[in-house]
């Protein structure tokens, strides 16, 4: 276990009444307002996918083979359980532990949208797996470590639950959930974008675009919050968690999703996931594990792992333009006396793009 802190972090100090009861946005953590307002501008209801559900049902039986249907069922079952764990971690841990009111506001917003995700996955499951007992059986199966077909799914869930334990330092748990939302969902997101590229399952693909964008925002916020902590994990431990998360997600893609059955090449999927992890490490201020490139350039168009810095883009197609998005500013580097820094051109290399581009007309080789 890392050493005990001698000074409480302002984020976690319950005795700092001024911090807890101050104005809505704390200037020591200026990035919080940016992510709150950006997320608020992208809010959406589960009903946004309803107009396409009937076409999903038609294509499910007419245009998909059983391997593809299994692939989708498994993804939905995993997401239905994983989003619940993320939401539980916010309620039971992070929103309770963090004492800054502005961060609690953000977590309240994130928890709301996790509820929309859960509702959406249930709508999709009911649409494609109409017998509730079949859907429940599938959800139970993906939590069974003893089922060889689903053991990699259960292993990811066990890893997530391990890092919900409050006996572990907050910084370690926050770091772990950066890898949960920034890596554990990526194989599934990619798999659904593959179907979008084939003009299949429009309701599922609309939901996937919205949810992938939301999870991207959650990851970016968590990275900024982690880097604002007075004490962070040792780099060796960051790399340890990164390698564990990467291995678990690669095993999930190969064993549970069986990506080759739907036309995705296993080696390219594993390369993509390594590319994702490398991007997270760069944003955490560390060197990447490798110099692999993105084998799926269409994912750049989805705003998932783009090389383009979102904060340098001239226009943002927000869902709600009434909401004023402030400039993203970062706190001083840990241990420095530097003033708050604005993020603009030349800043934050490696940040993921967050876009609202729903179109992708090109075909790509998988």
Radius of gyration: 20 Å
Mean pLDDT: 81
Q: Might you state the CATH topology name?
A: Ribonucleotide Reductase, subunit A
Net shape: globular
Strand order of the largest sheet: 1-2
The CATH superfamily turns out to be Ribonucleotide Reductase, subunit A
> How far apart are the termini?
42 Å
Strand content: under 5%
Spans with pLDDT under 50 lasting ≥5 residues?
Answer: 1-5, 304-318, 334-366
Question: Structural class, from helix and strand content?
Answer: mainly alpha
Number of domains: 1
- Can you give the helix content as a percent range? 55-70%
Give the tally of β-strands: 2
Order of helices and strands: HHHHHHHHHHHHHEE
Major sheet: 2 strands, antiparallel
Count of DSSP-assigned helices? 13
Just give the CATH class: Mainly Alpha
CATH architecture: Orthogonal Bundle
């Amino acid at each position: 276990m890392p050493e005990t802190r001698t000074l409480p972090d302002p984020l976690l100090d319950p005795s700092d009444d001024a911090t807890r009861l101050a104005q809505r946005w704390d200037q020591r953590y200026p990035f919080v307002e940016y992510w709150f307002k950006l997320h608020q501008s992208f809010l959406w209801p589960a009903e946004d996918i309803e107009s396409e559900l009937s076409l999903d049902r038609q294509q499910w039986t007419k245009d998909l083979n059983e391997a593809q249907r299994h692939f989708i069922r498994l993804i939905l079952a995993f997401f239905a359980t994983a989003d619940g764990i993320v939401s539980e971690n916010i309620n039971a841990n992070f929103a309770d532990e963090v004492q800054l009111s502005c961060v609690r506001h953000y977590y309240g917003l994130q928890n709301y949208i996790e509820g929309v995700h859960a509702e959406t996955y249930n709508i999709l499951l009911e649409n494609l797996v109409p017998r509730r007992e079949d859907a429940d059986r599938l959800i139970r199966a993906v939590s069974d470590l003893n089922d060889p077909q689903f053991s990699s799914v259960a292993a990811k869930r066990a890893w997530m639950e391990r890092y919900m334990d409050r006996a572990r330092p907050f910084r370690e748990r926050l770091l772990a959930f950066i890898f949960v939302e920034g890596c554990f969902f990526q194989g599934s997101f990619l798999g659904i974008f593959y179907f979008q590229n084939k003009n299949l399952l429009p309701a599922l693909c609309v939901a996937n675009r919205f949810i992938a964008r939301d999870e991207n925002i959650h990851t970016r916020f968590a990275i900024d919050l982690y880097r604002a902590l007075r004490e962070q994990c040792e780099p060796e431990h960051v790399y340890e968690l990164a390698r564990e998360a990467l291995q678990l997600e690669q095993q999930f893609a190969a064993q549970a999703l069986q990506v080759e059955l739907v036309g995705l090449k296993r080696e390219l999927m594993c390369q993509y996931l390594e590319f994702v992890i490398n991007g997270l490490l760069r944003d955490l201020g560390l060197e990447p594990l490798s110099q692999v490139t993105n084998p799926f350039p269409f994912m750049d168009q989805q705003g998932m792992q783009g090389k383009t810095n979102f904060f340098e883009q001239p226009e943002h197609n927000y869902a709600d333009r009434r909401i004023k998005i402030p400039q993203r500013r970062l706190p001083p580097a840990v241990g420095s006396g530097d003033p708050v820094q604005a993020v603009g051109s030349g800043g934050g290399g490696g940040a993921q793009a967050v876009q609202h581009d729903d179109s992708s007309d090109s075909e790509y080789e998988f």
